[in-house]
Every structure is written in structure tokens, then in C-alpha cells.
């Protein structure tokens, strides 16, 4: 098991590229706050259901000064058809290097915990839902995680999910940001 981070810890920096090849740094190189999300594989219907509010309301994040970064344990090639038009940074991590570095784990509870079943059903009923397809090879048992990181690299809040849909919703990100910003 990798080390789990907690509030007040210094975030170990990420210097990588998004799925379009643009540089991504956490803490943010432009001095913005960062909401860093860890999700499952590219075609994960539950992950993509969750991200719909972040897509629709991205302008609110931008106005608040929050840099949204979402990591999936799929390759860039697998991510582009699903997340290629997302308005924020999407990072592929097929070897799960970042997952291990930041203590983001996998568990059977990701799919077996009944608290996530409603989202699973809803996501699979979506008209334009992605299909899980072959990228399930990266793991259907991945657990979500959320980090809220200040521009100086301090983790101001963190959540390690214990089942597949145990992550911060959009409004929760904004309220946590407002609560810790000052």
C-alpha cells in the first residue's frame, strides 16, 4: 500500500503532459488552486457520468481560479475518443504511476458497494454513454480520489474514495475551496 496523503501535507509535484501533449503541472505553474481527480479507465460510464457537471460548469472553476486535472489509468490513445474534448486537463497514466505515488488504490468495493449502484445504473442508461470496451484491462476496481491543492503546494483537503462513486461532486469542490481558501 502506498502512502496516503492528508490535509496539510506538501504535495509531491507532478510535471507531465495532458492527452493533447500540453504541459500539466501540479501545483499549478500559473498560481491557481488545483482540484486533482483520480478516476478509472477511459470508457468508464460511472466516471464519465460524474464528470458531466465538471464539463458543463467548467467556467465556474475557471472564474474561481481552480485548475481542474483528471487522471485516468488509460493511455492517451484510449482517452482521446472519450475525453478528448473535455475543457480541462486530462492525463493518461496507464502504468498507474501517479496512482501509486499518491496512494490511490483499487478494491472490489469499487463495484460491489451498493452505494455506487445507483450511479452505475444511471450511467448505463445514458443515451450517449461511453462503452467500457477493451480498456477495462486497466481495472474496473479502481477507487476515486480527490485532492484540493493550494498554489504553494499544500494539500488543503483530500478524499480517498472507498467505493466506485465516492468522490466530490462539483458543488462540493467549490464549497471546500471556499472554506479553505483564506
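Sequence proposed for the structure above (182 residues):
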Amino acid at each position: 500500500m502506498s502512502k496516503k496523503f492528508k490535509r496539510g501535507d506538501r504535495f509531491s509535484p507532478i510535471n507531465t503532459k495532458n492527452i493533447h501533449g500540453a504541459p500539466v503541472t501540479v501545483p499549478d505553474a500559473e498560481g491557481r488552486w488545483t482540484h486533482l481527480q483520480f478516476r478509472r479507465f477511459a470508457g468508464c460510464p460511472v466516471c464519465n457520468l460524474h464528470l458531466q457537471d465538471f464539463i458543463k460548469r467548467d467556467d465556474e472553476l475557471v472564474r474561481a481560479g481552480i485548475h481542474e486535472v483528471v487522471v485516468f489509468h488509460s493511455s492517451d490513445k484510449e482517452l482521446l475518443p472519450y475525453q478528448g474534448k473535455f475543457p480541462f486537463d486530462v492525463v493518461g497514466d496507464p502504468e498507474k504511476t501517479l496512482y501509486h505515488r499518491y496512494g490511490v488504490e483499487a478494491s472490489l468495493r469499487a463495484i460491489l458497494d451498493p452505494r455506487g449502484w445507483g450511479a452505475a445504473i444511471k450511467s448505463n442508461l445514458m443515451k450517449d454513454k461511453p462503452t467500457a470496451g477493451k480498456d477495462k484491462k486497466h481495472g474496473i476496481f479502481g477507487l476515486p480520489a480527490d485532492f484540493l491543492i493550494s498554489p504553494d503546494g499544500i494539500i488543503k483537503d483530500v478524499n480517498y474514495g472507498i467505493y466506485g462513486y465516492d468522490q466530490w461532486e462539483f458543488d462540493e469542490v467549490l464549497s471546500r475551496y471556499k472554506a479553505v481558501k483564506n
